[in-house]
Amino acid sequence: MGRNDALTGMASVQNAFALLDVVASDERGLPAKEIAAALEMPLPSVYRLLKTLVASEHVVHLKDQSRYALGYKLHALDTSLRRQVGTPAAVARLILELFSRGDAAAYYAVHRGDDIIVAHVVDSPKRPRITPMGFGFNDAAHATAFGKILLAGMDDDERRRYLGRHGMPAMTDQTINTEAGLDSELERVLNSGIAVEREEFISGSSCLGAPVTNAAGRIVGSVAVSIDAAEFNERSARLAVLLRDTADKVSRTLRATSVLPNRRQ
User: Are 21 and 58 in contact (CB under 8 A)?
Assistant: First the structure.
């Protein structure tokens, strides 16, 4: 295979992933013409990609609706991703305990490659998670407590690379979205061992987080809670104590089970 063939193959792969993103954007799926318009691609090229993805079961053709939707193979990929990210049962129990003791939605996040991944969430109708902070959420690290914890654990090059990919968009009027401001915030996180986010990700909600560390003391994950912003002053001190305790237990549990997340997978 020559260089041009390799580049052409890479473009096809990129186009296929872009097509999946477009199909996923509508809960009913989309007609081929709308997919082509969204991708700004010729319709015959889109049909060729769709034929390949239907054959691989990553896309399904809903003939009676003249639409294409996500295929069932993606469910298997989601299941495999959850298994690879993995939240050991003992850690899940600790997050449930944090939720119960703290009376707050509780989160466990890991550092996977260059991404920050929410691996486990426990919430309830009374104490709901912050939308869309479910499994796999890895955006806006600069504006979340667990994101600040993990950014603080990165070296300068890692952090620069991460922020270069994700940016620092202003999610609310309170979001820290300058490099100098974030550097100061991360220094406070390292000194205090607690990350605080007050209506920086979404108005009306605030979070606190504490680091999960490996045997060498390096930050590899975090535990966090979210509460109504109006409750922050009254509840934050007690929640910080619970978070430090939970983070210590999670760290020790992961070391004992030898499943501590690998930061360079």
Answer: no
Architecture of the domain whose range is 84-257: 2-Layer Sandwich (3.30)
Structure confidence at residue 70 (pLDDT): 87
DSSP letters along 54-96, please? HHTTSEEEEGGGTEEEE-THHHHHHHHHHHHH---HHHHHHHH
Which tokens go with 197? 């986010």
| Domain 3-71, CATH among 3.40.50.300, 1.10.10.10, 2.40.110.10, 3.30.479.30 | 1.10.10.10
pLDDT at 6: 38
> Which positions ≥6 away from 174 have C-beta within 8 Å?
198, 199, 200, 203
User: pLDDT-derived band of residue 119, with 50, 70 and 90 as boundaries?
Assistant: confident
Percent composition of the chain: helix, strand, coil (DSSP 3-state, to 5): 50, 20, 30
pLDDT at 19: 92
Q: Are the C-beta atoms of residues 161 and 127 closer than 8 Å to each other?
A: no
25-40: average pLDDT: 91
Q: Which of 258, 248, 162 is nearest to 213 (CA)?
A: 248
Average of per-residue pLDDT values in the chain: 85
Helix (H, G, I), strand (E, B) or coil at 50: helix
pLDDT confidence of residue 138? 59
Where do the structural domains in the chain lie, given as residue ranges? 3-71, 84-257
Positive/negative CA dihedral, 17, 19, 25, 26: negative
Q: Are 226 and 130 in contact (CB under 8 A)?
A: yes
